[in-house]
Amino acid sequence: MRELLDRLLQAGGRHQVSPIQTRLRLLLGAVLTLAGVSHLSWSRNEFLAQVPSWFPLDADLVVVLSGIVEILLGVALLLAGRHRVIVGLAAAAFFIAIFPGNIAQLVEGTDAFGLNSDTSRAVRLVFQPVLVGWALWSTGAWPAIRSGAASSQK
Q1: Could you tell me where the beta strands, DSSP code E, fall in the chain?
Q2: What is the pLDDT of residues 28-49, one digit of tens each?
Q3: What is the pLDDT of residue 27?
Q4: 3 state SS of 127
Q5: Sign of dihedral through CA atoms 82, 91, 35, 48?
């Protein structure tokens, strides 16, 4: 595992990001930080409604923990520096981890954040992969993954 992390850190240094990628990484960091704060304050009830009924943990604990993770990821994206590839991978993994909750919102017909129809909830699902791609692209993690995969096959 340590070898993989070292390779990703080295790959991140080799793959420069454009100014637009940097700006979009900073925007994603700001959005995640704001979303995390909203988990802990003004939108807490909306987030509570999104925790699937089958999830084995207390819904309020899930909202608080996911809010803290979003704040940490957001701040990390804002301050990423040379660790931006690892932070991008972590953010992408987080977006993948919460995807089942978004699917559950569609399947269970849960209204939250103005998503009050199956169509609006389904459209939201389309944007989750966009967030994954945004995290990977804006941090340079995508080429780092590709070059890491190529070097591990040699």
Answers
A1: none
A2: 999 999 999 999 999 998 888 8
A3: 98
A4: helix
A5: negative
The Cα 128–Cα 102 span in angstroms is 9
The DSSP call for residue 42 is T
The SS3 call for residue 121 is helix
pTM of the model: 0.86
- Show me where the domains of the chain are located: 17-145
The structure tokens listed for 63 are 């909202």
Query: Alpha carbon of 127 to those of 10, 29, 64, 120, 139: distances in Å?
Result: 30, 17, 23, 11, 18
Inter-residue contact 135 to 73 (CB < 8 Å): no
Cα–Cα distance, 141 to 11 (Å, whole number): 9
Cα 133 from chain centroid (whole Å): 9
Neighbours of 111 (CB within 10 A): 14
The 3-state DSSP class for residue 40 equals coil
Which bin fits 39, alpha (ψ -120 to 50), beta or left (φ > 0)?
alpha
pLDDT at 32: 98
